[in-house]
Amino acid sequence: MSGDGTTTKVYALHGAVIAVLVALNFVLPEYHHGVLARVLVLAVFAMGYNLLFGYVGLLSLGHAMFFSAGLYGAGLPLYHLGWGVVPAFAGGIGAGFTVSLFIGLLALRTSGVAFMIVTMMFAQVFYLTTLYFGEWTRGDEGLVLQQHTRRIALGSETLDLTNPATRYLMAVALFAATLFATLAIVRSRHGRVLVAIRENEERTKMLGYDTFANKLAAVVTSGVICAAAGAAYALLFGYVGSTFASVQYSILPLLWVLLGGAATTLGPLLGTLFMYYVVDITSGYTSAYMLVVGAMLILLVLWFRKGVLGTVRERWLRWLP
Amino acid sequence: MTALLTTKGLSRHFGGLRAVDNVDFSLEPGEIRAVIGPNGAGKTTFVSLVCGRYAPSSGRIVFDGEDITDMPAHLRVRRGIAYTFQITSVFANLSAYENVALPVQRTLTDGRSRRAVRQSAMEALERVGLASRAHEQAGALAYGHQRLLEVAMGLALKPRLLILDEPTQGLSDSEIENFIALVREIASDATVLLIEHNMQVVMELARRITVFDAGKILAEGSPAEIRANTAVQEAYLGTVQEAGA
C-alpha cells in the first residue's frame, strides 16, 4: 500500500512531466513542435487503450472505432452542420460514449480471444460504414476542416487552433487532463477492482464485486478517452478520414502501450513518442521502415518484456503508478 | 430455530454426469458443519451451487428466508455467503494487505476512507496471524500462509456463512492445530461449512457431518453417529474408523 511519501513523489513526477511538455513549447524547432503536438494527442489515445488493456487486461483490437467515433463525432457536424469547436468536441465525446457503451454491452459477453475478435469485427463494421457513407465522409480521401471553422471565440479574443503554439498547448492540456484522470482512476477503489479483475476475475466475483459492471465502466471510460483523442485530432489537425478507422489504428495503440509499458500511467506517452520518431526517422532512409519497427519489437520482447516503464518499475522504481 | 441455508431437490448435471443429484440440505445458524465424501462425490460442486459459481440444473436454494437460486454470485456474497477456494487463488501479484483490502473496501459503506479500510484489513490479517506479513507479495508467501490469506479474505467480507473448501490441504501438523483454533474462533460469529478430507480436523470441529457419495447425501449426523455408520465406512473403506479411533 502506498504511503503519503509515495503519493507526493507520484504527483511530483507527473507534474514535472507536464511542466517539461509546456516548456518544450518555447524551445522546440517548428517541425518537432508539430510532431510532438500530434504525438501528445495520439498518446491520449494510447492512454485510453492502456486503461482497458493494461489495467483490466482486456485486449481489444477495435479501438480504432472509438478513436474514429470521436473523430467523426466532432468532424462531421463541424463540417456539414457548421457546429462550433466546443459543441463539436462534445459531439465527439458523446459519440465515443454511445459507441463504447453499445460495444461494451455486447463484447463483454465474451473474453480472451473471442473478445479480441468481436471488437475487431465491430471495428471493421465501423470502418466499412465510414466508407459506405462516402457521400458525407469522403471515405479514404477524407474531409479537410477549413481553418476559419477551427476557432473558439472567447469574448473579444479568438483561440485559433490552427496556430502552432495554441494547438500545441491545447494538446498538452488534453494530455494533462487525461493523465491525471487515469492516475486518479487507477489509484481509486474502482481502479484496484480493475486490477483484481485482471489478476483473477473469478476470485474478484467471489469477493462480491459485479465484475461485468466494473468492466463495462472501464470500456466506456476507455472509449470516451479515445474518442476525446479522436475529436481533438480532428479539431487540431483539421483532417477527418477513414484511415483512422482502419485496423492499423487498432493495432498501433497496442504497440505503443506494449513499448512504453502496459499498466503504467506514463508508458503510453513514452511508447507513442518513441515509435513515432522511429518510424519518422527510418522512413527517411528506407521504405522498409516497418522492418525496423519489427526488429525493435523483437528486442523489446527479449529485454523489456513489460515495456520500458514496466521494466523500470519492476527493477528500480517500485512506486511508479 | 429456522435454518440459515436450505436446498431443496438441488441438482447439477454435467452432460450425463449427475455431479449433484437431488440434494435436500439444511444448515442451522452458528453451526460448524463438515461435508465429507470420497473424491468426485460432488462436495465442491454442491458448495459452488450454494455460492453461485455454477447455476443449478434444478432445485431451489434458500438463504436466510430468501430464495437465492437465480441470484448472481456477487449479490450472494453481499448477502453474507463467502467462499474460500480449494485451489489457492489469492492475487499473487498484490501484497497480502491489498488482497484483504479488496473485500474490505466493498463491505464498508465508507470504503473511501483509508483509515477504515486499513483498520478492518489489518484486523482480518491479525485474526489469521498474518499481520506481520501484510506488505509481502501474496505470491511469495509460503503455501500455508497463502491458505491463511485465502481465509482472511473470506473473513474480511464479514460473512454470515463461511464456506471453506479443503482449507487444510497441504498444511503441516502444527499449522493444522492453529487452523482448528481459528475456525472455532470464526464460528463464534459466523456459520461455517467445511469441506475437509482430514478426519482429525472434521472430528474435532464439526457438530454435525454430512457425507456425500456420488452426488447424493449418504448420511448425516453427529461425529459419533457418522463414525458408527456402516454405509459411510464402506464408502470410505475404513478410513473413518482409523482416523477416528
TrEMBL record, chain A:
InterPro entries: ABC_transp_permease, LivM-like. It comes from the Bacteria. It holds the Pfam family BPD_transp_2. It is a multi-pass membrane protein. It is found in: Cell membrane. Keywords: Cell membrane, Membrane, Transmembrane, Transmembrane helix. The keyword rRNA-binding does not apply. The keyword Acetylation does not apply. The chain crosses the membrane at residues 12-28, 35-61, 81-106, 113-133, 168-186, 216-239, 251-279, 286-304. This is Branched-chain amino acid ABC transporter permease. It comes from Aminobacter carboxidus. The lineage of its organism: Bacteria, Pseudomonadati, Pseudomonadota, Alphaproteobacteria, Hyphomicrobiales.
Automatic annotation (TrEMBL), chain B:
Coiled coil: none annotated. Residues 5-239 form the ABC transporter domain. SMART domains: AAA. One of its GO terms (molecular function) is ATP binding. Keywords: ATP-binding, Nucleotide-binding, Transport. InterPro entries: AAA+_ATPase (IPR003593), ABC_AA/LPS_Transport (IPR051120), ABC_transporter-like_ATP-bd (IPR003439), BCA_ABC_TP_C (IPR032823), P-loop_NTPase (IPR027417). SUPFAM superfamilies: P-loop containing nucleoside triphosphate hydrolases. This is ABC transporter ATP-binding protein. It comes from Aminobacter carboxidus.
